[in-house]
Amino acid sequence: MTVFVVATGPGDPDLLTIRVEQLLASADAVAHEPAVPTSIVELAGAAAKVAEIEQDDADALVALAAAHETVVRLGAGDRLALQAGGAEAVALRAAGIAVEVVPVVLAATAVPVLRGIPVMARDLAPVLTVAVGSVAAGPAPTGTTVVTVPDPTAPTVTVDGAVAALDLRRLPAREVAP
Q1: Which of 101, 117, 140 represents a domain boundary (last residue)?
Q2: How many domains does the chain have?
Q3: Same domain for 125 and 155?
Q4: For every residue of 55-93, which 3-state class applies, written as one string?
Q5: Which residue from 94, 110, 105 is spatially nearest to 166, judged by alpha carbons?
Q6: How far is CA 42 from CA 19, 39, 163, in A?
Q7: For residue 157, which of 112, 126, 123 has the smallest C-alpha distance?
Q8: What is the structure's pLDDT at 174?
Q9: pLDDT for residue 178 is more than 50
Q10: Do residues 91 and 158 share a domain?
């Protein structure tokens, strides 16, 4: 039994790797979070059992994996890749189920690039900061971890589940695409 953990990054099926497409086509089961686009879920092979499983529902994922030889776990956005499968991977391994986190195209870099925004450029922005959290105006809610960005002049991509936000204020106006 093996669970292949796949983050769907920007959610565009055209940006999935060949390996992810092959895994989806050959999997016995595909478990996806509700926010994963239908166009990606539909790439599962015709014989695959497809199950919608909420984020971090390790018990449901372990049960599905125990009943199938090869499972692809699709997570919305970058979370699963950046957390190496997170709590789900820990629970699967504890149950004796092999886990492989599949390298993917991350929304953290794909979204700005697709919009023509350089996230790293030697003369403009030689550093890119990727932070896990959320972008919000005002003070952080109680219990929120606040991340201090090491270089406040660098472009910062903040990733929270299925959302990737680029702080454009850190780029000179002349470089920001309309």
Answers
A1: 101
A2: 2
A3: yes
A4: CCCHHHHHHHHHHCCEEEEEECECHHHHCCCHHHHHHHH
A5: 110
A6: 16, 5, 22
A7: 112
A8: 35
A9: no
A10: no
Contact 97, 2 (CB under 8 A): yes
For residues 9 and 77, the answer to whether their CB atoms sit within 8 Å is: yes
Record the tokens describing residue 81, joined without a space: 């890749």
On the CB side of 150, CA atoms within 13 Å amount to 5
Contacts of 178 (CB under 8 A, 6+ apart): none
The pTM (predicted TM-score) of the whole model is 0.77
- Please state which of the ranges 62-71, 110-119, 122-131, 165-174 shows the lowest mean pLDDT: 165-174
Sheet of 49-52: strands edge to edge? Answer: 49-52, 29-32, 70-75, 2-7, 98-101
Give percent above pLDDT 70 in the chain: 70
pLDDT at 62 over 80: yes
Identify whether residues 61 and 78 lie together within a single domain.
yes
Domain coverage including residue 144:
107-175
Higher pLDDT, 122 or 13: 13
- Structure-token match 């105006």, residue found: 137
Both tokens of 24, joined, read: 């989806």
